[in-house]
Each structure stands twice: as structure tokens, then as C-alpha cells.
Design goal:
The protein has 199 residues and is α/β, with parallel strands linked by helices. The chain is built from 6 helices and 6 strands; from the N terminus they run αβαβαβααβαββ. Helices cover 29% and strands 17% of the residues. The termini are far apart.
Length: 199
């Protein structure tokens, strides 16, 4: 089922759930020098202590913490003094296939694509944004209380797509930034996007 259909479909097991807030923290910057990072398990640079402290103050004491099992997410959680309640493999970043580890100037020129076309584009041996959103969104919809996710830019955009569809690909998601959504029953709303730790 396409992720857009999953957004529209009423989920019976969610109709009685109370309102909740979903906070997503993108991991600290990757150490590699600007090359494409999706499924590669690279380390994070967690040395920006003022930014970490700012975000730790904004996060407070979350009801539950769920993290991608990627090394960069685990390191970010540790730098924040947080112990995730669980590591969720479905929150992994998009698999960019043959684009992994490429410098920006070596990425193919796809021409002018609409957000919907870009969301459907699947790199060779990888997955499209639509593919990734189709595995991430059910995890988000299953949450039953206020939650902090420590994950990836793709995870954040998948969450935003529940409200704005493929236009979510247009949002900037900086390392160590916070994005906040709220839900009442099955209705999602965006409270804040890209709250950066260095500001």
C-alpha cells in the first residue's frame, strides 16, 4: 500500500488514543566530508557541547525515547545522556543504493522533478522516499504516548509528509535539529520544524 494511502486510511486501533506529541531529533553531524550517507553506518561528531546542551534543555524528560540503531543516532543519544527505550530498525535513513558515499558533484542530475516525482524516484539498488516513508509512518502512527525519536533527516521528512505529503522533501533538516508534531486521534499537525541546536 502506498504511504499516501496509509496516511488517509483510518486506523481503528488509533481512534481512542489521546493526544500526543512527537519530537524528532536528527542526529549530530556525520563525520564523513559531505558524501552521501544513508544506510552506511558512519560515526557522528558530537563535539558541539553548547548545541547538545541547548537541545537537551528543550527535550526535557521524554516519556519514551526511540532511536534508529545507526551508530550516529546511538552516539547522539549517549552525548545527550539519554538511554533509548528501544532501537527501531524501521527508522533507518533512506537507502540510497549506488548513490551511497558519492560526493555531491558525482550525483546524477535528475532534471526538474516535482516533489511527487522526486518522492517516487528510486536510486539503483536503493529505495525511494516513498519506500522509506511506507516503513517509517506505521511506526509513528503506532505510538501511544509522547515520544522522542533520535533518527535521520529522512525520518523527519517522512513524519512531515503525514501533514504535507511529498512537499516534505522541501524542508531543511539540520543536524541536531528538533521537529515537533502533535496528534489528536488520527489528525497530525506540525508545531515546529528545524529548531537548530546552534541557535
Amino acid at each position: 500500500m502506498p504511504w499516501t494511502a496509509m496516511i488517509a486510511k483510518k486506523s481503528p486501533n488509533l481512534t481512542d488514543k489521546a493526544s500526543m506529541r512527537l519530537t524528532i531529533l536528527r542526529h549530530a553531524p556525520c563525520i564523513p566530508d559531505g558524501r552521501m550517507v544513508g544506510r552506511r553506518d558512519v560515526a557522528a561528531d558530537c563535539g558541539d557541547f553548547p548545541a547538545l546542551e541547548r537541545q537537551r534543555g528543550r527535550i526535557g524528560a521524554p516519556s519514551q525515547v526511540i532511536a534508529s540503531p545507526a551508530l550516529r543516532c546511538r552516539q547522539t543519544a549517549k552525548a545527550l545522556g539519554l538511554s533509548p527505550d528501544r532501537f527501531e530498525p524501521l527508522l533507518w535513513e533512506q537507502d540510497f543504493g549506488r548513490w551511497e558515499d558519492l560526493a555531491p558533484d558525482r550525483l546524477p542530475d535528475l532534471g526538474r522533478l516535482t516533489p511527487a516525482q522526486l518522492a517516487r524516484h528510486r536510486p539503483e539498488k536503493g529505495e525511494s522516499f516513498d519506500d522509506m516513508a511506507a516503513r517509517v509512518i506505521p511506526v509513528l502512527r503506532s505510538l501511544d504516548r509522547d515520544s522522542l525519536l533520535i533518527a535521520h533527516a529522512g525520518t523527519v521528512r517522512a513524519a512531515l509528509s503525514m501533514v504535507v505529503g511529498p512537499a516534505a522533501l522541501s524542508f531543511a533538516v539540520a543536524p541536531l535539529s528538533l521537529t515537533i508534531l502533535s496528534r489528536h486521534d488520527d489528525d497530525w499537525a506540525v508545531e515546529a520544524v528545524n529548531i537548530r541546536g546552534d541557535l
